[in-house]
Amino acid sequence: MSDLTKSEHVTPPGASDPLSVGERELDRFPNPGLPEHKHRLSDESEAGSKRVERQIVILFVLSLLASIGGVVGYFAFPVGVTLGSVQASTLSIGLGLGVGMLGIGIAAVHWAKALMSDVEQVDERHAQRSDDATRAAAVQALKDGADDSRIARRPVLKGALVSAVAVAPLAFVVPLVGNLGGDWNVSKFRYTMWGPGVRLARDPDGGLIRPEQVTIGSVWHVIPDGLLGSEHMLEEKAKAVVLMVRMNPTELTEAPERADWSWDGIVAYSKVCTHVGCPVALYEQQTHHLLCPCHQSTFDVSDGAKVVFGPAKRALPQLPITVDDEGYLVARSDFTEMVGPSTWERERYTDLPVSDEEKAH
Fold first, then answer.
1. Which among 81, 147, 293, 330 is most buried, taking Cβ atoms within 10 Å?
2. 3-class DSSP assignment, residue 21
3. What is the rounded distance in angstroms from the CA atom of residue 270 to the CA atom of residue 244?
4. Which residues form the Rieske domain (predicted)?
5. What is the distance between the alpha carbons of residues 110 and 116, in angstroms, rounded to a whole number?
6. Residue ranges of the domains in the chain?
7. Which of 107, 79, 103 is nearest to 93 (CA)?
């Protein structure tokens, strides 16, 4: 048969297309069959089955204890008191969630592999919709499978499963619900520790900064002088943290009303992203772009920290700076707008005069 004849050969609908193998013609490949079924230890003895059941119960109990531990950790280590309490709270909740879910997952896999039926089943090809008798048989097979898992005859195992699954979500539901009753006074974000004459200090050691120390292209993480050791250090740092950059003054594009907000090419902007509040700290020296690692919002530091890419809708608030009589970098004032993400009430707290009495509240 020529190549052309072969390519034009068409098998009539409903007829088998024989495959020539030497002098034989086969309608189909031979069925290789199934390998010999290997029984598991839990199949061969009741003692082995009980041992596996105990292992699964232990895994569910560990999950249960871990989930409870996460909830206890939430109450035992209040967030915001000290840095150590934040770390302890995060660790306890994270371990509770992780070990709780991991225990359920491992137990479920072990249960499926060691106790549920692993007998090979063969289903021949059939039409997409089976007849009623076959569908009824399929439902019966599912019921038989549930019976074969022996869950009805294993009350301890069933109880451990239900308890672990019921308690596991509490490790993240309780902190979520607890935080819903927190302080929703967004006006607190209008004012920070910055103010006229407050010196810029290095984060985290608190060293004061002179402009000659800041080289072109360098990036400094800055906090207000006096923040370290203060009563509400964590809350105030979350609002006041600043990123400072120095570039060639000729590369700066400044609005007329902000002409005196920088010092010889040194500019300072809030480090809190205006999208959802992540720390913006990835600086690209060649483009002067500042990147938020959470959702890739990108700000142009050379042009008022305006948004050039990403979901953020507002530029980063700028901190006006100057140099005091002793040669240290200081703030001219607080931020002129609320830092952080947008809120429904943000406009109420923007461009308001800052009084000491209001800042105290």
1. 330
2. strand
3. 9
4. 239-330
5. 9
6. 41-121+132-180, 186-360
7. 79
Separation between Cα atoms, residue 340 and residue 346, nearest integer Å:
10
341 HSE (CA, 13 A, CB side): 10
Torsion of CA 90, 91, 92, 93, to 10 degrees: 50
Domain spanning 186-360: which CATH class is it, in words? mainly beta
Beta bridge partners of 269: 243, 318
List the pLDDT tens digit at each of the 361 positions of the chain: 444 444 444 444 444 444 444 445 555 667 777 888 788 878 788 888 888 899 999 999 999 999 999 999 888 887 655 667 778 888 898 999 999 999 999 999 999 888 887 877 777 765 567 778 888 898 888 888 777 776 667 788 888 888 988 888 887 787 777 666 556 666 666 788 999 999 999 998 999 999 999 999 999 999 999 998 887 888 889 889 999 999 999 999 999 999 899 999 999 999 999 998 899 989 998 999 999 999 999 999 999 999 999 999 899 999 999 999 999 999 999 998 888 887 666 655 555 444 444 444 3
- For residue 346, CA distances in Å to 179, 188, 235, 268 come to 21, 11, 19, 22
Q: Are 332 and 262 in contact (CB under 8 A)?
A: no
167 secondary structure, DSSP code: H
- Joined together, the tokens standing for residue 207 give 């060293």
What are φ and ψ of residue 182, in 5° steps? -75, -170
